[in-house]
Design a protein that fits this description.
This protein is α/β, with parallel strands linked by helices. The protein is 44% helix and 14% strand. The structure holds (2S)-2-hydroxybutanedioic acid.
Length: 395
């Protein structure tokens, strides 16, 4: 039976990790997978996470099954984190399940959409996270794209995006990135969000918002602007969140899938389907990551410490953006890279060709996705000169 299979290429993002780890060059740089790194290139465990883990270790008294919903305390805290003081939390319309990471949340959402309408069409931005199409396709959804990033002008194709989304069907789903667009770093501003929300209300499509980077753009509140506005105005929406980046819990696999229905009864029905989907895939989510997050968010002291640690990560990434722009300029490069400093979150496209990306990898041991997406957190004061020089040399 296995003989029917053909080998597949490594994942375009995760495959880079293996290549990078094998490379013996001492000056190699990893700008591939979206993980936060500190100045020394290390992805450390946040101090608030360490403290929460110690607390859990001392107080946890059972390992009994948690159930397909996951931790109720975690689900509540995630709701408050995303929606803040929003009235939606008082309306008995929000139903959340804890999931194995943001990817798990998206896969559950995809299966749920398939139950609402088998083969439903989901519109994703062009470009979008490389895994979206595979995730949605695996659930039998039809994936179509709407214009988003303007590669020439390093900005948004906002008018084209609006025009395209005005033609989608009322029973289609539109995927939007809440903030820190992956892979382009190009976010909707508040005014643009208002127009998209107007359109969602007018056309009646279901928004699916992917929020994997809350707190990595402008701040926890600012990054939730679009999600909150959408929740104000539409009757139904789906939200997928992740604690991989903002809590640095990557390998713990913790995120959440939230369904908002038009009323309590509809939401209860939707929730029963969601639980059935979960049972059919992985029965129930792992509990450890959720326990850490609910401990942090449930304690004034740990929550404060988390705000501070998150701000350190955000500020370092923003600083790296300007640093790279300045250093490339110092190399005498004429091409304008200042757009990198205007974009948000973990990623930007350098805007170089696949051949140049390959040269950077083969000749300089600098690793990035083939589209020239770079993970900004991989830049540091100690590698930026080498990086800028290498970029200049392949241009
Ligand atoms: C990324 O885009 O690099 C991250 O979201 C990690 C992943 O799973 O692809």
């Amino acid at each position: 039976m296995f003989g029917n299979l053909s080998a597949l290429p490594a994942d375009p993002i995760l495959g880079l990790l293996t290549k990078y780890r094998k490379d013996p060059n001492p000056v190699k740089i990893d700008l591939g997978v979206g993980v936060y790194k500190d100045e020394s290139g290390h992805t450390a465990i946040l101090d608030c996470v360490k403290r929460a883990e110690k607390f859990r270790l001392d107080t946890e008294d059972t390992k009994v099954y948690i159930g397909p919903t996951g931790s109720a305390a975690f689900n509540d805290e995630m709701g408050k984190l995303v929606f803040g003081e929003h009235k939606i939390l008082e309306q008995d319309r929000v139903r959340t399940v804890s999931t194995p990471g943001g990817t798990g949340a998206l896969r559950v959402a995809a299966e749920f959409i398939g139950r609402c309408k088998p083969g439903a069409t989901i519109w994703v931005s062009d470009p979008t996270w490389a895994n979206h199409a595979q995730l949605f396709g695996a659930a039998g959804l039809t994936v179509k794209t709407y214009p988003y990033y303007d590669y020439d002008n390093k900005t948004l194709k906002f008018d084209e995006m609006l025009a395209s989304l005005s033609h989608v069907q009322a029973d289609d789903v539109v995927l939007l990135h809440a903030c820190c667009h992956n892979p382009s770093g190009m976010d909707l501003n508040n005014e643009q969000w208002q127009k998209i929300v107007d359109l969602a209300e007018y056309v009646g499509f279901t928004p699916l918002i992917d929020m994997a980077y809350q707190g990595f753009g402008d701040g926890l509140e600012e990054d939730a602007y679009g999600v909150r506005l959408m929740a104000d105005r539409v009757q139904e929406m789906i939200l997928c969140t992740s604690c991989s980046k903002n809590f640095g819990l990557y390998r713990e696999r913790i995120g959440a899938c939230t369904i908002i229905g038009k009323d309590g009864v509809t939401s209860d029905i939707a929730s029963s389907v969601l639980l059935n989907v979960v049972r059919g895939i992985y029965s129930m989510p792992p509990a450890h990551g959720a326990a850490i997050v609910e401990t942090i968010l449930g304690s004034d002291e740990l929550r404060q410490q988390w705000y501070e640690e998150l701000a350190v990560m955000r500020n370092r990434i923003n600083g790296n953006r300007q640093l790279l722009v300045d250093k490339i300029k110092e190399q005498g490069v004429e091409r304008d890279f200042s757009f990198i400093a205007r974009q948000k979150g973990m990623f930007s496209f350098l805007g170089i060709t696949p051949e140049q990306v390959e040269q950077l990898q083969n000749k300089h041991s600098i690793y990035m996705v083939g589209s020239s997406r770079i993970s900004i957190a991989g830049i540091s004061n100690s590698n930026v000169d080498y990086l800028a020089k290498s970029i200049a040399s392949v241009l």
